[in-house]
Amino acid sequence: MKRNNICLAVLLAVVFQCFILEAKAFDKQPSYNIYPIPQKMEIGDQSCNFAQGSKVNVVAEPLIDQVTLDRARQILEDHGFEYEFSDSYKSGCANILLGVFRSNAVVDKTAGQWKLDRKYLEAAGEQSGMYDAHILCLTNSGLLNKALGKNSRKESEFVAQVLILGVNTDAVFCGLASLEQILDHTSTPAVTIYDWADVKHRGVIEGYYGVPYSAEVTKDLFRFMARYKLNTYMYGAKSDPYHSRYWGEPYPASITPEQERVGYLTGDMMKDIAETARQNKVDFIWAIHPGKAFAEGTDKDVIQHIMNKFESMYSLGVRQFGVFVDDVGVSSDPKLLKLCADNLALLQNTMDNKWNKKGAVPADTVKPLQYVPQLYAYSWVDRAKGRAFFSSLKNVPEKVNIYITGANVWSVPNNQDIDHVRLGDDNDGLGLGRVPGWWWNYLCNDQDMTKLFISDMYTNFRDESHIYSTSRIPADVTLKTLIVNPMQQGELSKIGIFSVGDYAWNTSAFNSMRSWEVAVPAVVGNERAQDLFNIIPALRYYDSDEFEYLITRYKQSVERGRPAPGALIAELKKVNASCIAIKKMKDSPDESDRLFYKDIRPWLLKLEAMTKEAALLLEKKHPEFAASSSYRDIPHRDYEKDPDFSFEILGGMGEHIEMAERTAEPSAKCLLPFIQWLREQN
Fold this sequence. Notes:
By secondary structure, the protein is an alpha/beta fold. The protein is built from 21 helices and 17 strands. The strands form 3 sheets. An 8-stranded parallel β-barrel has the order 8-9-10-11-12-13-14-15. The longest helix is centred in the C-terminal third of the chain and has 31 residues.
């Protein structure tokens, strides 16, 4: 598993025992750096060591599925442990116990013997808005024996004992993600974590206009999502012709290298993607875009044609589907609104009759339909038209998840928009009658293709031209589904996706800057984190605040007749050195590193060239500040046309997909004009 080394120092240890009943808030008791931030955590002052030279004994109840067992194996192997599976707890060695609440099986009973507080598991569910609830207790033999009133043996006093009890096997899978991060730490004090997610479905919607992600990037994202408890990925790549233009046709058996370069996928690739999602407990939702054929009845057999495609995707391992009719125009014709709602209900019922009959094997069933309607940003129409539209969907089966983006296309999730769409006439609402899912166009750069959004969330808000720069996300959002539409650069999007997952898990504890500071090393590793921190501000279109300040200060010093370029030269060289360091990811043995470099390459190479030229031009202008004579050979790059700084995009959807090139724009507002000014000065 990628990124097992994001260890950070334990900030504070507070004495406790695993069987203490009252949990304390995380923010009041900093400890392990586990992300997403757990809901409740207690830390003890005693170590819990895994015995050297002995196998870890893993006990898993029958309700723990194979994917969760494989995840446990993977974590132990990645951390260098030998292990064995058995049916019972073994004294004198490290044990990891995995069980399901109320199963009355061995681990469930053991949790009762350990006197772990189950009130959070009892409360979990749709009514409470607590999802994937679980308890993780890491204790040692001495503490455990003391709790059980037994005499402890000295040689086993500090041997680690782990119990993870979840409301189901998926919740135990989430608990293993916390255990994985605990094992990344060099010191492992006792801890009990009572944890759950505030948002049920958390993840990504690949729905931007641009080059679809390659199979390699998509699978890498799934592995990243598993580590940080994200569980939903909806595939609706606008420029994938088999999502839109050829929506009724199966994926091809083969594609050309040119087609693969622009995001085409074969059936085997899609099968591999679906299987990787399953292995990482990510609900992979394949969405179809039949457009007017579905919404306006231009195809009388549209349901059968959609089912034919769904059956093709089902054979590839897909077990959840979506229908998109976005961006085809919002009708006000009551007959067409009714037709669209009837089609949606008929499709869900047809799917249920085929795959969800009573007695069906769970692995063969399909999950509820996901629907993106024509009117997803309700401010496009007046209230009467909006009410007619959303109320027409009110009687669609309740389990169908209907998405909005809020009042506007780029709105930040908020309760006001959710309630306005959900509530009916009595509350002056639009009458959908259910909590909508939220398609969040955050990180998405399909309208800002030359920009990257890899800063903290609120800096990104400031930089994205379509998001209100002062937006803030609420601490008590009442969503069940939150999926983000990321950048065309999937690996770079991990930084923002990390923070969205952090927010969706524990909304009240979210801190934008703190989350970002952990996200960067989570994505590139501790060894490269500082270099990436150094360059991220300068990768912004609007430049780093430091560049803007130092350039302004330098020009003022020139005007005063006392040039002082030293600080600016030092900053330029620092950023340049970090660009060179990040370039080494190109040759990394780790696939994630290589994919990351491929995404960042045009911006990185351009920033490297710009900082080098600016520093050398300053040294030429002020030789007394030059560290060497290198300024005599100053490269003058064409920052608008140099192919090193360009990248490909796809625009449009359906029959209107076109290839184009764009030029990366890091530090475009201050540094680039400054270089031109320096050229003129020299």
